[in-house]
UniProtKB/TrEMBL annotation:
Species per Swiss-Prot/TrEMBL record: Streptomyces cremeus
Pfam family of the protein (one): CAT_RBD
Record key words, sorted: Repeat
Span of domain PRD: 61-170, 171-281
Protein name (record): PRD domain-containing protein
Cleavable signal peptide: none
PROSITE patterns xref list: PRD_2
InterPro entries: BglG_antiterminators, CAT_RNA-bd_dom, CAT_RNA-bd_dom_sf, PRD, PRD_sf
Domain of life: Bacteria
Length: 288
């Protein structure tokens, strides 16, 4: 790899053997580096490959603004717990986490404690990411002083969830969390369910809605199967379809984008699964 631009002693913008611009981090990697000269591979700790049309220069500058020790702690921790490998196509994740950790460390030094209002939602709706965030927090705490409060796992969870979206801020994730809560509440009230978020049907529903949000943001909603699958779902599950249409209205009101007929049909399918699973659990033979 050849150096294109030195941001500081620990961040370098370079061009790899494939001709694409990459961001390299590592302690001392920018020291004595010169434009057009090869980068010492022994100094490379992490390789960021900007994707989705993101500007490499802008991302490199953002990484360079993060303190050396914090960036190093986060980069190593992300790799150690298996969230990111040595090569990453999501530099915004490292930037966002490092920026958050820097702020959390500053609050910890000043004795400021933050209570995150979405803790229960993060644990319930994003169980996998919450478990990852706890491991990530533990790995970060091995490398920073003072240690961060366990409550920071909630914020880290939201950053991990947000990494699946194209936007660089958490606003879309906050909105998604609220909408999922609202949709579950509608289904529970409509059918008198006490649907535990730990149940398989609820977990499938949450997963489906999360990917629905990704498709909405990427403008890639499901379409084209209306005459076959969608029609069959609506015919077999008319009540679930009516509920799904209510859920689609919520999405449109909150996000300003209407759902395709196929998306509504698949929502209906997941609603039907939730009600059928609940009926099976409460049926006369449920305890047999």
């Amino acid at each position: 790899m050849k150096t294109l631009r030195v941001l500081n002693n620990n961040v370098v913008l370079a061009r790899d053997d494939k001709g694409q611009e990459v961001i390299l981090t590592g302690r001392g990697i920018g020291f004595n580096a010169r434009q057009g000269k090869p980068v010492d591979p022994a100094l490379i700790v992490r390789v960021f490959v900007p994707a989705d049309g993101r500007d490499p220069d802008h991302l490199a500058e953002a990484l360079a603004l993060v303190g050396e020790e914090v960036l190093r702690a986060v980069v190593i921790a992300l790799g150690e717990v298996g969230i990111e490998g040595r090569e990453s196509t999501r530099p915004t994740l490292a930037i966002a986490v490092a920026d958050h950790v820097a702020g959390a460390l500053d609050r910890a030094r000043r004795g400021v404690v933050v209570e995150y209002p979405l803790r229960a939602e993060a644990q319930a709706l994003y169980a996998d990411e919450y478990a990852q965030a706890q491991r990530l927090l533990a790995a970060i705490n091995e490398r920073v002083d003072p240690k961060l409060d366990p409550a920071e796992a909630t914020a880290l969870t939201l950053h991990l969830v947000n990494a699946g979206f194209a936007s660089g801020d958490l606003s879309f994730t906050y909105t998604m969390t609220g909408v999922i809560q609202q949709m579950l509440a509608v289904v529970q009230r409509q059918y008198g369910l006490d649907a535990s978020r730990e149940s398989m049907s609820a977990a499938r529903f949450i997963t489906h809605v999360r990917y629905l949000f990704v498709r909405i943001q990427q403008h890639r909603q499901l379409t084209g199967h209306e005459s076959t699958i969608g029609t069959g779902i609506r015919r077999h599950y008319p009540e679930a379809t009516r509920t799904a249409q209510r859920l689609a209205t919520i999405v449109e009101m909150r996000l300003g984008e209407s759902l395709s007929e196929d998306e509504v049909s698949y929502l209906a399918l997941h609603v039907a699964r939730m009600t059928m699973d609940a009926d099976a659990e409460t049926g006369p033979d449920a305890g047999a």
